[in-house]
Amino acid sequence: MAKGTLQTVDRALQLLEIVSEYPQGLSTKELEGLLELNKVTTHRLLATLENRGFLERVGSNYVIGLKMVELSSMKLNNIELKTEASPYLRQLVGVLKLPVQMAIRDQTEAIFIEKIHTVNSLRMYCQIGKRIPLYCSGVGKALLLQEEDETILAKLSKVNFEKFTPNTLETPGQVLEEIKMARETGYAIDNAEHENDIFCIAAPIYDYRGKIIAAISIAGEGETFVQHPTKEAVDLVKQTAMEISVRMGYRNRDKHIE
């Protein structure tokens, strides 16, 4: 075993790799032999992985669980999303000459999975993999558009509203009001709520189920950028998000284009 690794974790991963090679599954006794472990240790590993959804029992055998499928699907979807979105994001940057970001949701945070800057364009503190609270970002609000009002309030009530700038929203109710407005306009805004003097316009991306899976945003300077945005900027962000949605299998295009 490699230096610095945890033996228990290593064994659990080895167990998953072995089970994945047998579609029909393996019994506890078979796994004991393949892993060369005693009954107690094997049972504890199986119980833990089953409890977390990584394994399931079919009769007396263990097979790969839905949690493994879910994690694999998320990884593949993100790879596909970035691949499909890239040319559209670059086209958007080329037309507007503004930086573009794309993010997905993880609980009460947005995670940036893509960013494209232009030469001499506005620089943002945005790195791929960076997390940002949903309540103070355009992409974050766009990612919440399909949630029920009560769900939004309940989830955000558990969040510590950190004050990043003087414009950072301070309550779940304030965030909900902006989300309601975004549902009407088809786009959400960041009114310099996370970084001073950085304003964003964001729109959601849908998948084949009609579910919001990501959001894109453009960034500009000056409050006018979000308070009185140009029709071209808004239309292009919404159109780009919809074109990516179609590439991800979305078919109810007319519902979100005015």
Provide a compact summary of the structure.
The protein is α+β, with helices and mostly antiparallel strands and 258 residues long. 45% of the residues lie in helices and 18% in strands.
Number of helices: 9
End-to-end CA span: 59 Å
The chain-level mean pLDDT equals: 89
Unreliable parts:
none
Find the structural class using helix and strand composition: alpha+beta
Oligomer: single chain
Task: Give an overview in words.
The structure is a single chain. The protein is of the alpha+beta class and 258 residues long. It folds into 2 domains: 7-64, Arc Repressor Mutant, subunit A (Orthogonal Bundle), CATH 1.10.10.10; 70-256, GAF domain (Beta-Lactamase, 2-Layer Sandwich), CATH 3.30.450.40. The protein has helices at 7-20, 28-35, 39-51, 66-96, 138-143, 149-156, 172-185, 224-227, 231-247; strands spanning 55-58, 61-64, 100-106, 109-116, 131-133, 188-191, 199-206, 212-220. The strands form 2 sheets. Strands 5-4-3-8-7-6 form a 6-stranded antiparallel beta sheet. Helix 2 (28-35) crosses helix 3 (39-51). The longest helix is centred in the first third of the chain and has 31 residues, at 66-96.
